[in-house]
Specification:
The complex is a heterodimer of chains A (769) and B (297). Chain A has helices at 6-23, 180-183, 504-509, 512-517, and strands at 60-69, 87-99, 107-114, 122-129, 133-145, 151-152, 161-162, 185-186, 190-203, 208-229, 237-259, 263-276, 280-284, 301-305, 310-324, 327-340, 366-382, 385-398, 404-405, 422-423, 428-442, 446-460, 466-481, 484-497, 538-549, 555-567, 574-592, 595-613, 639-660, 664-683, 694-713, 716-730, 745-746, 754-768. Chain A is mainly beta and 769 residues long. The longest helix of chain A is centred in the N-terminal third of the chain and has 18 residues, at 6-23. In chain A, 34% of the residues are buried. Chain B has 297 residues and is mostly helical. Chain B contains 12 helices and 2 strands. In chain B, strand 1 and strand 2 (32-33) form a beta hairpin. The chains are: A mainly beta (769), B mainly alpha (297). Chains A and B meet through helix 1, strand 2, strand 5, strand 10 and strand 11 of A and helix 1, helix 7 and helix 10 of B.
Chain lengths: 769, 297
């Protein structure tokens, strides 16, 4: 008999234990759980709270509470609805209810409501069967609070008819208007949008689907605009008006899509209709400018046209086709027609002004056709080599007819002789662009790219007919180490413009009789040496650097640099050069799943250099004299040079901390933005040109947010938010300006923002099981 | 005795085999593969959010949804700690970019994703999962108020621009990056959704569309010639403040060509104070008034 063998005795439990250990799930602890990151959630103070991922058995949540803003303002509350010193409700809801049973296709109802009862409330309700259809109805209210410090002497601000008070005293300048200050009334500058949208998506038979959206947005409110009475440009009499806004934009789009393994196609139609209830704005002339009793106060009336009704139809087809696993072709084409045929307003609303030659037509019947076409061949001839060849065509064809309009100047004088007729200039452009790009994958996850672009832009009815621009760009992306990656790119563009026809706009705008009366040397609107920068010769250099460094699992850093330099090398008057530089440094620190810290600093500088020549008309307008004595237009001592620097420093800091996990969350957020706009001048030496620098235009913002959420029950939590918002601005164009500061412009006495706002919100959040 | 020991050995072997079979097939349910036998809600609660989304809709807490995205993953089933799923989107094990993208695009190729290939994001080797979260009840990037945070992870220079004095309501969640841009690629420059830049702007600013009787040439060509849509130091999202912006293209006799320097402040130069050129020339985007040839009506 053999003795008992330990191998047999222990083999069973060993094998049993082994099989158990291999087949049971591996319960890694939280630190090693690769999905631990999903337990975190970004609950920023002002974002809509999302159910933490760990709470997956909830259908949604509802938030109820109130918040308080300490002061009226137009900065803190510019877009968030908190522009008044008041208490507002907090009510938001997020809920999704599934119907899943084995007999039917699963479906769900989805309801989202945000900020109910506030000026920025929005909501949506959807019903969907995934893979089949989805129907969504949405409502979105937007509110923009504008500068509310302005005042106007007009009665009826917000209407289309602005009149002055009975006791108004007119004068030739604002200083003489003795009742101006006592007549000033506050008005709101605000805009509200209310948009309803219905959206439907349907999957059809294999590969086919359709979608459609219908929306209607109503925009109401008020904003300011300038209006002037004038008989010539040297002596306008202006006042800042309050313009009413009452507009509706209706859009409808419909798309059909088809897709299979080899191709995708989309055909769509978009219709947009813009309708306004306010076609014009009339205002009573506050001046006594010796323009005649029918033009001066109280009889004089001005009329400004507001945006006319318009509509657009657009057809678009786009898609891609997989030729073979290495080559794909993509195309996108569209044709759109925008049209407008609103009846013209009269040359002047003032019936006492004589009109001998009526307008050539009753309405514009304007049409602009926009055609675009893109086609691209994307290939991978070798495993590591990608090549793309693309062509872009873009044509804006303005088919509006060109006619002469013997206009009335500023509702201030009878119609002039027909030789003063001006002609409208319908602008058209056409772009052709070719791109060839290649990239090659190098070892260690690196990639090099090289590309060439050629673009031709043709313009009709402008001073420059053609510009051609060639661009070479190169990039290199490297990943020398697992925790370090860098991308560098450089692009150089050279644009050549055809001959600048300095007299083109003169001939296009004015009547031949007037042109013939004008000396050759004065047949221009803009100085012949001026180059309009977007159509002129240019050398452009863009360099970008993007560095990522992740030293360990706790830290990550990013540095982004961009240098965008434009040099308009053939320009002597106009924008000569501009340059934008940006440096952004951001870091994040995530020491645990319960704490995250992020910070960023950004520096932005925009520098522009532009030149001009200060000159009068008449005999001084001859720009072609080469020997002294020079008329002003030919005199280089009358040149002025301006350099603008807009600098921005921005700093941000954010901490999100589960102070007591599953019990208390705390978030702290701080943002600082400092902007400064400086402008310096030099002159060519003319004695009447000072060349004095302007004071800086400044703004400084401190914005602190502090939030805390206390989960005092499994499905119930309390949120407390506090914000401090401090904005100070300086703008020489409006600060310290009273209504009569400018003799021929009645201002609104608007002031720059100088706000200290405290905001507190308290709400209860309930998670719906 | 020997017979008994032999019998004991046979029984123990049989018992071992049966036990091994029972426990090893715990990962195979009635449907075959049973991912959630291991990835239970107690262990990986975040994953189970997917049952409340369309991705997990049809499966009602079974594994066919997992397989649709992550594949059958036989190697992972055999040795889960050593082998990741067939298609893994992270965080620890990442399938190649091509594998990840192909998996998502197998269902989501059409619509807005149609021009993904050759897009800027695809060229940067971005995967869908770097922006999208399937295992969350609400995908952050599809939410108006949280989408921007995702975009700013890479587009860091925008963080400051979105806070400048003149801006769109992006921080407030009223305008999203995707209202103008198609992150999945488009044929328009800067991945804009509409065929042209101006058409993109007109979707919200239809009052600027016209056509107008008297147009302003740069307006009809390109809104960005004057405006910075992401945020600007100057009012109305202008690149440069007036009157200097206007004087970059206008230098006519008399007031358009005049120097507007610091001495103009003391003299209260009407071309500089208030709305500068727009004190009179307010119809800068174009006008339909027959007396509007100078954009003053």
């Amino acid at each position: 008999m053999k003795s008992f063998s330990p191998k047999v005795f222990f083999s069973v439990p060993v094998v049993l234990g082994l099989s158990l250990s291999l087949s049971l799930p591996s319960y890694a602890d939280d630190k090693e759980d690769p999905f631990a990151f999903l337990l975190d959630d970004n609950n920023t103070v002002f974002s809509k709270p999302q159910a933490p991922s760990k709470q997956t058995d909830y259908k949604g949540w509802v938030e109820v509470g109130f918040d308080f803003t300490s002061d009226d303002n137009f900065s803190f509350g510019q877009y968030n609805g908190h522009y008044e010193d008041d208490l507002q409700p907090i009510f938001s809801l997020d809920y999704r209810q599934w119907q899943k049973d084995k007999q039917t296709t699963p479906s769900y109802w989805d309801v989202q409501l945000w900020d109910v009862g506030t000026p920025i409330q929005q909501g949506s309700i959807s019903y969907a069967q995934p893979g089949s259809f989805k129907l969504t109805a949405r409502y979105d209210q937007q509110f923009q609070a504008g500068n509310s410090t302005g005042r106007t002497p007009f009665i009826g601000a917000g209407s289309s008819d602005l009149t002055l008070p009975q006791n108004w005293v007119s004068a030739g300048s604002s200083l003489g208007m003795s009742e101006l200050n006592s007549s000033l009334l506050s008005f709101e500058q605000e805009k509200e949008r209310n948009k309803f949208t219905l959206d439907y998506q349907q999957s059809l038979m294999e590969g086919w689907s359709l979608s459609s959206t219908l929306s209607s947005e109503k925009k109401t409110g008020q904003q300011t605009m300038g209006g002037a009475f004038y008989i010539d440009a040297s002596n306008p009499h202006a006042i800042i008006l309050v313009e009413p806004i009452n507009q509706t934009t209706t859009e409808f789009d419909f798309a059909v899509q088809y897709g299979n393994d080899q191709m995708n196609l989309n055909a769509s139609y978009l219709f947009s209709h813009f309708d306004t209830q306010e076609t014009d704005l009339q205002w009573q002339n506050p001046y006594d400018a010796n323009y005649g009793v029918d033009v001066d106060y109280p009889n004089g009336v001005g009329q400004m046209s507001l945006a006319p009704d318009n509509q657009m139809h657009q057809f678009r087809i786009n898609g891609n086709y997989l030729i073979n696993p290495r080559y794909r072709i993509q195309a996108d084409g569209s044709f759109g027609r925008a049209s407008q045929d609103e009846s013209f307003l009269p040359y002047s609303v003032n019936p006492s002004l004589t009109v001998n030659t009526p307008a050539p037509r009753q309405s514009l019947d304007g049409k602009v056709d926009t055609t675009t076409f893109d086609i691209g061949l994307y290939g991978r001839p070798m495993n590591k080599l990608s090549v793309n060849l693309k062509y872009h065509f873009d044509d804006r064809n303005n088919q509006t007819s060109r006619d002469g309009y013997n206009y009335i100047k500023g509702d201030s004088a009878d119609q002039q002789d027909d030789k003063y007729t001006v002609y409208n200039r319908p602008y058209s452009t056409q772009k052709n662009r070719f791109d060839l790009e290649g990239s090659y994958r190098l070892p260690y996850q690196a990639k090099a790219s090289l590309g060439y672009r050629f673009e031709n832009v043709s313009r009709y009815n402008t001073s420059v007919e053609d510009t051609d621009e060639s661009t070479i760009h190169a990039g290199l992306r490297v990943r020398p180490f697992n925790n370090t990656s860098a991308k560098v790119s450089l692009a150089f563009s050279d644009r050549a413009a055809s001959t600048y026809q300095w007299d083109q706009s003169y001939y296009a705008l004015l009547d031949s009789e007037l042109i013939n009366e004008t000396p050759d040397s004065q047949r221009y609107n803009n100085h012949p040496s001026l180059s309009q920068y977007y159509m002129s010769n240019r050398e452009k250099t863009v360099a970008k650097v993007n560095l990522n460094f992740i030293p360990d699992r706790l830290w990550s850093h990013n540095l982004f640099l961009i240098w965008d330099d434009n040099h308009y090398d053939k320009t002597s008057l106009g924008l000569e050069a501009d340059n934008r530089q940006n440096m952004t440094l951001s870091s994040s620190y995530l020491p645990s799943t319960t704490l995250s810290v992020t910070a960023y600093y950004s520096y932005d500088l925009y520098n522009a250099e532009q030149n001009g020549r200060s000159f009068r008309g008449g005999v001084e307008k001859n720009a072609f004299v080469t020997v002294a004595p020079f008329p002003q237009a030919s005199d280089p001592t009358r040149d002025w040079y301006s350099e603008l620097d807009d600098t921005t420093h921005a700093l941000g800091f954010n901490i999100e901390w589960q102070a007591i996990p599953s019990l208390v969350d705390i978030e702290f957020d701080y943002n600082f933005v400092d902007t400064e706009g400086k402008q310096t001048f030099n002159t060519g030496g003319a004695s009447d040109l000072a060349g004095t620098s302007l004071p800086a235009i400044e703004s400084r913002l401190h914005h602190i947010k502090l939030g805390s959420t206390y989960y005092f029950q499994k499905d119930l939590s309390i949120k407390l938010n506090y914000q401090f918002y401090r904005l100070s601005e300086k703008n020489w164009a409006i600060d310290d300006m009273s209504a009569d500061s400018v003799d021929k412009v009645v201002l609104t006495e608007e002031r720059s923002a100088n706000d200290n706002i405290h905001f507190v919100g308290l709400s209860v959040l309930y998670r719906i099981p | 005795m020997e017979v008994t020991m032999n019998r004991l050995r046979q029984l123990s072997a049989l018992f071992t085999l049966v036990t091994f079979y029972i426990f090893s097939t715990a990962a195979y349910g009635e449907e075959g593969i049973n991912c959630i036998a291991c990835h239970t809600s107690a262990v990986n609660p975040g994953l189970h959010a997917i049952w409340q989304t369309p991705h997990g809709a049809e499966s009602a807490n079974n594994s066919s949804s997992c397989i649709k995205c992550h594949g059958d993953s036989p190697d992972h089933l055999d040795s889960p700690k050593d082998n990741p799923p067939q298609v893994s989107f992270g965080p620890n094990h990442q399938s190649t970019i091509e594998v990840q993208s192909k998996q998502c695009l197998s269902c989501h190729q059409g619509g807005d994703r149609m021009l993904w290939h050759g897009s800027a994001h695809q060229d940067e080797d971005l995967t869908c999962s770097q922006c999208h979260t399937a295992h969350a009840i609400r995908d952050k990037v599809l939410n108006k108020t949280t989408q921007t945070d995702t975009c700013l992870n890479c587009h860091t220079s925008m963080e400051a621009q979105l806070r400048l004095p003149s801006r769109h309501p992006i921080q407030e969640g009223k305008t999203m990056c995707s209202d103008c841009h198609n992150a999945h690629g488009s044929s328009t420059e800067a991945s804009l959704k509409e065929p042209t830049l101006n058409n993109t702007c007109f979707r919200c600013h239809a009052e600027k569309r016209g056509p107008f009787l008297f147009e302003h040439a740069p307006v009809s060509e390109d809104c960005s010639l004057c405006h910075q849509p992401h945020g600007a130091v100057n009012d109305n999202l202008l690149n440069t403040r007036g009157p200097f912006l206007c004087q970059q293209c206008h230098s006519a006799a008399f007031h358009p060509s005049q120097i507007n320097d610091g001495s103009g402040l003391a003299s209260r130069n009407q071309n500089m104070i208030g709305k500068n050129c727009l004190n009179c020339h307010s119809k800068v985007h174009g006008t339909n008034h027959p007396s509007g040839g100078r954009l003053t009506r």
